[in-house]
Amino acid sequence: MPAVEPRPIDKLDDDDYPAYTMGRAAEMLGTTPAFLRALGEHRLITPLRSEGGHRRYSRYQLRIAARARELVDQGTPIEAACRIVILEDQLEEARRMNEELRTRDREPQR
User: Fold this and answer.
1) In three state form, how does the secondary structure of 37-54 look?
2) Number of structural domains the chain divides into
3) Model-level pTM?
4) Coiled-coil annotation: which residues (predicted)?
5) Residue 85: how many CA atoms within 13 Å on its side-chain side?
6) Is residue 20 within a helix (H) or strand (E), and if so which, with residue range?
7) Using an 8 Å Cβ cutoff, are 21 and 54 in contact?
């Protein structure tokens, strides 16, 4: 019986794959490229660069940018919005890790 080779990871399914150009990302978010650059300046998201030096964004980064845009649209200054989103992301990660530890502690010991 021949060995079955694993399916290559589909880059389009990868939340961290930088699939979107700045123009496309801005269009999807209903914002401007300047807004995305500002998020980078405030270190909320750091886009990867293509070989030609163009900014490329992942789906994960677009979700983060969309949350920042919601806050800015509600009147939050961009600096504060970026800090809030960073803290929300850190809180979510801490909750995830806490749940993993709880689940591991509930498993029977061998």
Assistant:
1) HHHHHCCCCCCEECCCCC
2) 1
3) 0.78
4) none
5) 25
6) strand 20-21
7) yes
- DSSP states of 44-103: S---EE-TTS-EEE-HHHHHHHHHHHHHHHTT--HHHHHHHHHHHHHHHHHHHHHHHHHH
Does 85 fall in a domain? yes
Phi, psi of 61 (to 5 degrees): -65, -35
From residue 52, give the alpha-carbon distance in Å to each of 4, 55, 73.
37, 9, 32
> What's the length of the chain?
110
**Strand order in 48-49's β-sheet?**
20-21, 55-57, 48-49
For residue 103, which amino acid is it? T
Q: Is residue 5 part of a domain?
A: no
How does pLDDT run along the chain (110 residues), one tens digit per residue?
555 544 555 666 778 888 899 999 999 999 999 999 999 999 999 999 988 989 999 999 999 999 999 999 999 999 999 999 999 999 999 999 999 999 888 777 66
In a domain, 3, yes or no: no
Could you tell me the two tokens for 107? 């498993």
